[in-house]
Amino acid sequence: xxxxxxxxxxxxxxxxxxxxxxxxxxxxxxxxxxxxxxxxxxxxxxxxxxxxxxxxxxxxxxxxxxxxxxxxxxxxxxxxxxxxxxxxxxxxxxxxxxxxxxxxxxxxxxxxxxxxxxxxxxxxxxxxxxxxxxxxxxxxxxxxxxxxxxxxxxxxxxxxxxxxxxxxxxxxxxxxxxxxxxxxxxxxxxxxxxxxxxxxxxxxxxxxxxxxxxxxxxxxxxxxxxxxxxxxxxxxxxxxxxxxxxxxxxxxxxxxxxxxxxxxxxxxxxxxxxxxxxxxxxxxxxxxxxxxxxxxxxxxxxxxxxxxxxxxxxxxxxxxxxxxxxxxxxxxxxxxxxxxxxxxxxxxxxxxxxxxxxxxxxxxxxxxxxxxxxxxxxxxxxxxxxxxxxxxxxxx
Length: 396
Ligand SMILES: *Cc1c(COP(=O)(O)O)cnc(C)c1O
Known about the structure:
The protein is of the alpha/beta class. The protein has 2 domains: 3-20 and 295-395, Alpha-Beta Complex (Aspartate Aminotransferase, domain 1), CATH 3.90.1150.180; 42-294, Aspartate Aminotransferase, domain 2 (3-Layer(aba) Sandwich), CATH 3.40.640.10. The protein is built from 14 helices and 12 strands. α4 crosses α11 and α12 packs across α14. The protein is globular. Pyridoxal-5'-phosphate binds at residues 20, 70-72, 114, 161, 187, 189-190, 212, 214, 224.
């Protein structure tokens, strides 16, 4: 019996993408094997994080890197680092930020519920800009001068949520922020692929960037990458690591923590609840290596093949493949339903309730469209997904 069978939990075919509520994606056997091997020896966790830092630095072009339990976790410790710098007294007081720089400037159209992570560190958000292009009442969004205008002596950082339509461009934001001596923290959780985005935000001046380990990277579901400036990664590490140690016996790895810059060590910091174990760290680094080794073109071709398999099963229905020419995108299958036959909601619910449950993406249901995302499909599942959709649609 499988582990899930023993628990009485159904497995499902994930044609939605690496959503946390669907338990993320499928790890490659090499990643699972690396995690099992990691579980069979104990290490100094700071030394392991220092090794992770070197590998993440190389992959991203940043000075340093770190692993925590998700992109959200990385945003929390990144925000904490921007608030406290290397001051252990401040680290100990978070999330009470009395007397500290505790504001974060953020474009209003980028607000989203993942920003709980930075608020949890003690930041309050100062929103700028009016996203009138979303209201259908204009063409603009926040502009860099508005960010500049909102920066004060209380600003700890500018927080930027990266996505294809995010405005203003990262480079403009980092330029105005840096001119005022303020770091920029970027949420790039779901910005892979393209692989080039591993380096892009750092190259455009971001001081810290967070990526999900459990999305397209194919790492453990509870892992994330923080990449950025050495001093900020050090401040984040100090608030995440278990520092229940005697100062005179503490020999942190110099590549991650420069002890000479500290007047003391904080103990358990605000990042303690974002723990990543040795298994996650090793699994994530393995996944990162495989993600880079596979490359966008091969990965895209693999996903596209699954999309084409789904489409082949849906002969006679209105289907299109998006992103088929863009090797940096995740291609998907969009199925436009005949509203007189079956609604997207009904199709999704019936597939979810089927004997082999299938989860589709209903995000575009208001347009009468359901989407198949191939990112978390295992070999053979694409045909099954296409077949089940076709069967339900033909019966309707
Ligand atoms: C997925 C996501 C996160 C959270 O990432 P986790 O690795 O699950 O913590 C944060 N921000 C955005 C924009 C995301 O899409």
